[in-house]
């Protein structure tokens, strides 16, 4: 970016918290003041929400910045905090996981059950020779064993590396090799889109090229036939026959807890390393604060996959450390029908729902009649994560899922940040649709210009974090230089001369007139049109605010007169007529609608009506591929793409030249 981002979108709607929620909120406005007064003391108090076997002697050691140490000298066991302490407090019979398989089979797993299974898995892994510091790869469907496998690793100090079950053998191989994993935990398969989807053959293919792997533990889920080798062990013969007695040893606060590869939206995935004490402190606190989680009464459901950081922090570590009861669902949102999510909310009386904009926009596309067919009255709080949420999608979510009453928390964070960083507090913040609002207590975020200077309210630029935070990544696994280069060098030049280290998140953002933060998409996606930096997010949000559009992606394509020109891809809502003249008319209307909403500078040169958009397997729009299409290039790396046939559909329509 050669100048600050143009600030085009003007969204003025604002929604105060429901009075009852505000009156009973876990966290009130005081938290901001307390953290502002003494940030480290604030985090020290949040660490005190956990059970420590040994107290730390220093909250933060930043002397070797940007390599942080939090709660130095402290010791704890993550699995003990997520399981044993609830069981010891007499809450063993409380449901930890209401599990729903895609075919409709169910399991009810209590804290006592989860504790027992985790102890057995810890014993089985130890028996297989896994010791503290070893890496274990986990490649599982969304079944309770996924949480058990992670917790068992944490319990014995092994570092897990969860690989999303949709990834190919190549992707799995790279991740196993990068971390030199000793054991792989997998399943015969899982159920997806109404049929078994095999995992074991992919593991077999990967393991053949991974000499570090000594053993493969296989959960039986689908019952399909699998090939077997000397390294393979059935979970039910190994784990479920192991002793349920296991005493958790404490580990150092900085002991490596897990490696997780970023989703690869912009570049080659990075193996992000998280450690123990700071990570658990912040995931646990943010679950309590942002979701206002009341473990006695709430039923929480995060729809993410365990293969993403959201699954790590807000299915496993955050909710379980708080003693939550949650729903875990194996399958896809439209199997066997498009109301499946709402059916699950209704069935388990879910009170807190945390999902992604891509799903909300898909639900918009399917139409509001579908959620209207279910009783969603148990819900009291809605959350969003993964991409900027367009104001219209936010409003739709609140209106048709949240009865027009519920707070929506738009939570900004990354694999690298480990936990939520910028978000409304549901009992405090008067949320604006499309804005992540303010940094959480204890977090110092800012928006800066090219020179790293804070932009004034009303300005746009780069999102940065000015102070270290407990759940921050500690490095990129095996690549300290890439860690410094990627995150700490863009605005960190002063650091070498005794200035401050500034974390560069890679996202564009603006501050509105009230100083609230709006995420504007990745810096790599920002467009430069006639000398103006324009955010893809804002143009997309303008398109989505048209009643006929459910979802849109926008890219800047090279243009001889304007430098870059805006090319948009839009998915029409359910019943919209798009063939022939009706389609031409809609495109003309949409171009004018954007010009009217954002100004003539943002009027797309070209709009394509498409049935789908290319997305990563975590559901994020991959704009770089659309840029390839718009510039008539052959496609770049598509290995993290969810469905490669989407690109054929889009490319073939491109010749039509709208
Ligand atoms: P890679 O870094 O490999 O390109 P990725 O950034 O998609 O992959 P994640 O760590 O899963 O991997 O995603 C974090 C990014 O997702 C953020 O940097 C931001 O761009 C986007 N994001 C997440 N939540 C929000 C949100 N609430 N609002 C806006 N953007 C969000
Ligand atoms: Mg990223």
Automatic annotation (TrEMBL):
CoA binds at residues 192-195, 310, 530. This is Acetyl-coenzyme A synthetase. InterPro entries: Ac_CoA_lig, ACAS_N, AMP-bd_C, AMP-bd_C_sf, AMP-dep_synth/lig_dom, ANL_N_sf. It is an enzyme of class 6 (ligase). Coiled coil: none annotated. Its cofactor is Mg(2+). GO terms for cellular component: cytosol. GO terms for molecular function: acetate-CoA ligase activity; AMP binding; ATP binding; metal ion binding. Residues 538-620 form the AMP-binding enzyme C-terminal domain. PANTHER family: ACETYL-COENZYME A SYNTHETASE, ACETYL-COENZYME A SYNTHETASE 1. ATP binds at residues 386-388, 410-415, 507, 522. Mg(2+) binds at residues 544, 546, 549. HAMAP family: Ac_CoA_synth (MF_01123). Residues 30-82 form the Acetyl-coenzyme A synthetase N-terminal domain. Signal peptide: none annotated. It catalyses: acetate + ATP + CoA = acetyl-CoA + AMP + diphosphate. Catalyzes the conversion of acetate into acetyl-CoA (AcCoA), an essential intermediate at the junction of anabolic and catabolic pathways. AcsA undergoes a two-step reaction. In the first half reaction, AcsA combines acetate with ATP to form acetyl-adenylate (AcAMP) intermediate. In the second half reaction, it can then transfer the acetyl group from AcAMP to the sulfhydryl group of CoA, forming the product AcCoA. CDD domains: ACS (cd05966). Acetylated. Deacetylation by the SIR2-homolog deacetylase activates the enzyme. GO terms for biological process: acetyl-CoA biosynthetic process from acetate. Its EC number is 6.2.1.1.
